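The record is given unchanged here:
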Amino acid sequence: MGSGYKTWLTGDVLTASDTMGYLMKQAVVTCTSGTRPSSPTTGQPIYETDTKLIRVYDGSAWYCPASPEYTAYVPTFYSNNVSGTAIGGGSVSVTYSRYQVVNKRCHYYGHATINTTTASGFGFSLPVNVSQRLFSMDTIYLKGPSGYTTATGGGHIPSIGAPYNRVGPVSNSNAQLNIVASGDTVHWNLNYETV
C-alpha cells in the first residue's frame, strides 16, 4: 500500500491502494481515541470524535499540538536568588513541578517545602528561559507556620533575574517573601513568554 506523498501525472489511474495509502494519509482522518490509525505516518493528523481533539503523529506517538502534555521538571533552588548558591542550612523537597509550552507561552506550576532555618530568601530555576516578560497572573505564595500572612510571605508577582533562567521573590506593599522557619512551603503558578 502506498504511503506518504506521490506526484500524480495526467492519465494516472487512482487505485484502491492509492486511495487507502497516499490519499488517506494526506487527509485528516476522523476516528475515536480507541480507533486511531494502526500504521500512521509521521505528520499525519486525526480528529477524535470522543475527545474532540486534533492530534498529530510525531513518528512515535500521537500528541495534541494545541495543548501538549505537561512535563515534569525539578527546579534548582537558590539562596536569596543568587544563581549557584544552594539553599543554606538545609534542603528543599519538591512535591510536584510541571510545565507546558504552547507556541511561546509557558505555564509552570509547582509546590515544594523549604527545610532551613538560616536562608532568608530564595529563588528557583525555570524549565524554559524567559524571552520578554512574566504575565500579570503570575504568583508565588510562601506559607509559614501561621499560614499565609504579611509576615511570612503572601502572594507576590515574581521578578526575573539575569540571565533570565530563574525566578525570585520581590518586595511589595503587602509583605516580604522571606523564609521564617524550617518547613515553609512555596507554591507557584507562572505564565511567561519563552525564548
User: Anything to note?
Assistant: Helices lie at 16-23. DSSP finds one helix and 15 strands in the chain. Confidence is low (pLDDT under 50) at residues 148-154, 170-176.
